[in-house]
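Here comes an entry:

___
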Amino acid sequence: DVQLVESGGGSVQAGGSLRLTCAISGYTGSRHCMGWFRQAPGKQREGVATTYIGGGASYYANSVKGRFTISVDDAKKTVYLQMNDLKPEDTAKYYCAYTSLSLCAAQTWVHSPESHRPYWGQGTQVTVS
């Protein structure tokens, strides 16, 4: 089974930075999609950033463009989300996700969290005040 374990969340002041890490195990290393999603209390889960294992384009929610960067270290089987210039509206539980679909469209997935039948991590809380 695929396992995703997030870390790096915490509480920061507005304008601060955090780097989230997701350790991945149980996947083949093929060119599939990875993503970060978030959910605030009382709201639906929304896409933050998506990309491809093995290299490829990255896609972002409009609300985080220019501030967040997703990256994947294929050798280490780790995905990162560098979050800069954090804002109070970024407060949410952040989830790492993976899809085993042989065909995936990261550009689509970022706008529809459940569309790629993802595996979810346990989440890590980010609070910005």
Notes: The two ends are 37 Å apart (CA to CA).
